[in-house]
Design a protein that fits this description.
The complex is a heterodimer of chains A (about 200) and B (about 250).
Chain A: E1 2-5, H1 13-21, E2 26-29, H2 32-37, E3 40-43, H3 49-58, H4 62-70, E4 75-78, H5 80-83, E5 86-89, E6 95-96, E7 101-107, E8 120-128, E9 144-149, E10 151-154, E11 160-165, E12 169-176, E13 179-182, H6 190-201
Chain B: E1 5-13, E2 16-21, E3 24-28, H1 32-42, E4 47-51, H2 56-72, E5 77-80, H3 86-94, E6 99-102, H4 104-108, H5 111-120, E7 125-134, E8 137-142, E9 147-152, H6 153-163, E10 167-172, H7 184-193, E11 198-201, H8 207-216, E12 222-225, H9 227-230, H10 236-245
Helix pairs in contact in B: 1-2
Classes of the chains: A alpha/beta (about 200), B alpha/beta (about 250).
Chain lengths: ~200, ~250
Amino acid sequence: MIGLIDYGVGNLFSLTSSFAAVGAEAEIVSTAEGLKRADRLVLPGVGAFRDAADKLRAAGLVSPLLEEVGNGKPLRGICLGMQMLFEKSYEYGCHEGLGLLSGSVMPIRDVVPEDYKIPHIGWNALKLTRPDCPLFRDLKDGDHVYFVHSYHATGCADSLAAVTEYGGELTAAVWKGNVFGCQFHPEKSGTVGLSILKAFCGRLS
Amino acid sequence: MITKRIIPCLDVKDGRVVKGVRFQGLGDVASPVDLAKYYSDAGADELVFYDITASAEGRKLFSDILTETARRVFIPLTVGGGINTVEDFDRVLKCGADKVSVNSGAIRNPDLVREAARLYGDQCVVLSADVKRVNGEFRVFAKGGREDTGMEAVGWIRRCVEMGAGEVVLNSMDTDGVKEGFDLEMLDAVCEAVSVPVIASGGAGGIGDFITLFKTLPKVDAGLAASIFHFGEVRIADLKRAMADAGIPARIV
């Protein structure tokens, strides 16, 4: 069972529907027991980093999540959920993340020229820096996915798995061991997105 | 490189897709769910659903259609029509909408834009404006284009963006239904005034009109149309191919 972590940030309707569309059994989980029961976990999220991190903490899910992932359970962060995998975020101040991956979340304006609009909204092409990532099994360079964001992970070092070009290079996906993350929305990225979700349900090593 | 988006718009009344030509005369097209799936498979980058129902039963039917669409279609879904309160935002977001478009509701109560952006984020709030030239100025119209608000359009749009609207759909009533091309002059004025994505609406008659739009105004992010897609006059796959051939970044499925 894929556990979609519900901590009061965003709604999980589209994610639930898209996992159903690829034939996966996905369930919304919001407790430590739920996290334990799931075979794989998805950390979604929209909105502001600080608010989301606070809510995850208030829900008492940080330690259980770190424990499950520490034991090797696959975790996939999506959009803000991916940003939370990192050590810190500089969105309106400096806030601590889960620290599962090294790097920090910075405004994309740092690499995006003035004449580009922010947020980065729309369909953009992926450049796979780690084509061997198990989630990219059915993907090719140049496939388009849907982005909506103003911040991205930087200093990801060896976890960087895909980038996208928007006047500068933005972090699109990361992967290290059993921890995966994507800045774009696979649940809104048509068949390409569904293939990435499906791959997360399959063999990951 | 980020692609230019092509967005079919579905006006939904009593559970069916309709399209008003110059906002009048409604003809039945197809089931909204089937049409949405068809467009998504054909390469549409996003869909807009406008609820033009007035009755409570119609609204319930619309919610059911929206939910069913969101279960089967995995591209961004914007919903508009009858959005007057944050409760309306909540209602359609729970049915699977990703963005909510406000028009008359924001004209009646501009704070709606601010409040919704605070609750759901700027990226969720789309300002839709029906604009027409009156006495040499761009004027905002309310109630589906039936009522002149007397407000100058560019200033109104800029104000809504400052309050948190994350995207703008600019529908030119002067070119809508005429099928002789988008309103480049009006679009240019709005693109110069705001820094959020601008979606062009009203006037597309063929593939060439989209090419002209994106070539002439590189600041425009997306093109929206209804009847030319519904009646098969323009196939989305052909449009995308023509865009790519013209050097316009397009997502081809």
